[in-house]
């Protein structure tokens, strides 16, 4: 299929752009936080670039990325991870001529500044990590021997931290020239083959044992004293508690007695009021009965009076009737006599 003439130029431009993109992607290098990329060559720019003798420049890239120009630039990597070194010395004579052996542990790493990375790149780029560790170990062991020769066994024995700090401070200057820094340095062991340190420690051990025994005896004594005080306080507390209980019991009994007395008085008053009310009720009943009896008697008297009056009236009527009858008889008789 033939491409039209008007599509040739745009197609070439697209192809060129794609090729440039692939080339850029292939030549763009990234760096992790635990490493540094050392870029050498031309057209390095000015950021994180150091110039050396004869106008030789080195660019350091950390925690980012950079485009490496083909032909003109080259990139290599340095690890910034820490390294552990076991440092030891053969017998070294101290200030007073006592031979001792020491073991220590150092943690080192390439410094974080651009200058440190450039210095380390100059000395260790392309070398294995073991070479870096070996050179740093030689420096540390040399200074360790030097510091041992300037101190007494007693000073080393009693203050290992100061001893380690002096070694670290002196060795750090030389390691700085190699682009390295000491993260930490610790003395693990100081010993000798003649029993000097053991003899040096015996008085201290005896003192510690003695102090421990004294402390134990004092602790036992204090425990007994505290126990006696606690028992005494306990007895006081029990006595106080018993007193409180007795007083509470007494108060309870008094309250119960007072309540019972009040209850009895109230009951007596209630009983008396009941008897009085009962008497009043009986009296009221008697009064009512008397009233009823009086009414009954009044009724009887009234009835008797009425009966008497009735009888009187009957009697009067009978008397009048007999009188009238007698008068009539007299009148009749008189009339008869007249006739």
Quick structural gist:
With about 350 residues, the protein is of the alpha+beta class. The chain contains six helices and ten strands. Helix content is about 65%, strand content about 20%.
Radius of gyration: 69 Å
CATH topology value of the domain at 83-194: Tetrahydropterin Synthase, Chain A
Return the string of H and E elements. HEEEEEEEEEHHHHEH
Q: Report how far the terminal alpha carbons are from each other.
A: 205 Å
Number of separate helices = 6
**Low confidence ranges:** none
Q: Sketch the major β-sheet.
A: 4 strands, antiparallel
Total strands: 10
Helix content percent band: 55-70%
Task: Using the coordinates above, name the CATH class of the domain at 83-194.
Answer: Alpha Beta
Under the CATH scheme, which architecture of the domain at 83-194 would be assigned?
A: 2-Layer Sandwich
Shape: elongated
The helix/strand class is alpha+beta
Looking at this structure, what is the CATH superfamily of the domain at 83-194? Answer: Band 7 domain
Mean pLDDT: 80
Strand order of the largest sheet: 3-4-2-6
Beta content comes to 15-25%
Polypeptide structure, described:
- By secondary structure, the protein is α+β, with helices and mostly antiparallel strands.
- Among the domains are: 5-79, no CATH class; 83-194, Tetrahydropterin Synthase, Chain A (2-Layer Sandwich).
- It is 65% helix and 18% strand.
- It has 6 helices and 10 strands; from the N terminus they run αβββββββββααααβα.
- It has helices at 5-27, 114-124, 129-149, 153-158, 160-176, 196-338; strands at residues 28-30, 35-41, 49-51, 57-62, 65-67, 73-79, 83-88, 92-93, 99-110, 180-191.
- A 4-stranded antiparallel sheet has the order 3-4-2-6, with helices on one face. Strands 7, 8, 9 and 10 form a 4-stranded antiparallel sheet that branches. A two-stranded antiparallel sheet has the order 1-5.
- Strand 3 and strand 4 (57-62) form a beta hairpin.
- The N and C termini lie far apart (205 Å).
């Amino acid at each position: 299929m033939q491409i039209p003439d008007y599509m040739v130029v745009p197609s070439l431009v697209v192809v060129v752009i794609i090729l440039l993109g692939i080339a850029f992607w292939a030549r763009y290098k990234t760096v992790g936080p635990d490493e540094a990329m050392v870029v050498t060559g031309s057209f390095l720019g000015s950021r994180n670039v150091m110039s050396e003798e004869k106008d030789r420049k080195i660019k350091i890239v950390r925690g980012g990325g950079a485009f490496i120009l083909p032909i003109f630039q080259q990139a290599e990597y340095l690890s910034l991870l820490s390294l552990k070194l076991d440092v030891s010395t053969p017998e070294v004579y101290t200030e007073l001529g006592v031979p001792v052996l020491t073991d220590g542990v150092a943690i080192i790493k390439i410094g974080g500044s651009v200058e440190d990375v450039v210095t380390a790149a100059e000395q260790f780029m392309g070398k294995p990590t073991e070479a870096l560790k070996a050179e740093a170990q030689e420096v540390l062991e040399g200074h360790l021997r030097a510091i041992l020769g300037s101190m007494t066994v007693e000073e080393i024995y009693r203050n290992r931290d100061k001893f380690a700090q002096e070694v670290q401070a002196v060795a750090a200057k030389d390691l700085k020239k190699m682009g390295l820094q000491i993260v930490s340095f610790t003395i693990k062991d100081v010993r000798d083959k003649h029993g000097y340190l053991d003899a040096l420690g015996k008085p201290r051990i005896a003192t510690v044992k003695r102090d421990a025994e004294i402390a134990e005896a004092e602790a036992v004594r204090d425990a007994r004293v505290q126990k006696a005080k606690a028992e005494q306080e306990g007895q006081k507390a029990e006595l106080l508690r018993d007193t409180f209980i007795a007083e509470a019991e007494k108060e309870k009994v008094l309250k119960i007695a007072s309540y019972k007395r009040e209850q009895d008085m109230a009951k007596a008053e209630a009983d008396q009021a009941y008897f009085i009310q009962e008497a009043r009720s009986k009296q009221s009943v008697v009064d009512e009965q008397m009233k009823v009896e009086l009414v009954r008697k009044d009724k009887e008297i009234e009835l008797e009076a009425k009966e008497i009056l009735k009888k009187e009236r009957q009697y009067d009527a009978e008397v009048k009737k007999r009188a009238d009858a007698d008068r009539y008889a007299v009148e009749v008789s008189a009339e008869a006599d007249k006739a």
